[in-house]
Amino acid sequence: MIQHFNYKPLYANAQLPGWRLQFFYERQRYEAEYEKDGSIKWLTAPPSNEQKVKEMIHELMLFHVYE
Q1: In what helix (H) or strand (E) does residue 51 lie, and over which residues does it extend?
Q2: Which of 2, 13, 34, 35 has the greatest number of beta carbons closer than 10 A?
Q3: 61 by DSSP, 3-state: which?
């Protein structure tokens, strides 16, 4: 489960899509950039089960940003 999920806009103009993400997963801290097309660019080493984490991130972004 992702914990302490935090996001902020990549650009000063918040109308432009793109977010910087920070969160903990399995006691490890991760950072990534979430692009407007839903792609995720890892700024830290990706988690071992990357696909599962990406699915959780997409779900959280839909809830927090696009709702």
Answers
A1: helix 50-64
A2: 34
A3: helix
Q: Give CA torsion, residues 41, 30, 17, 61, to 10 deg.
A: 120
> pLDDT digits over 20-60, tens only?
999 999 999 999 999 988 999 999 999 999 999 999 999 99
**Those residues with Cβ within 8 angstroms of residue 57's Cβ, 6 or more apart along the chain or in another chain:** 2, 21, 23, 32, 34, 40
Q: Which amino acid is at 4?
A: H
Any residues with CB less than 8 A from the CB of 27 and at least 6 apart, and which?
Answer: none
In one letter, which amino acid is 58?
H
Judge whether 20 and 5 are in contact, CB under 8 Å: no
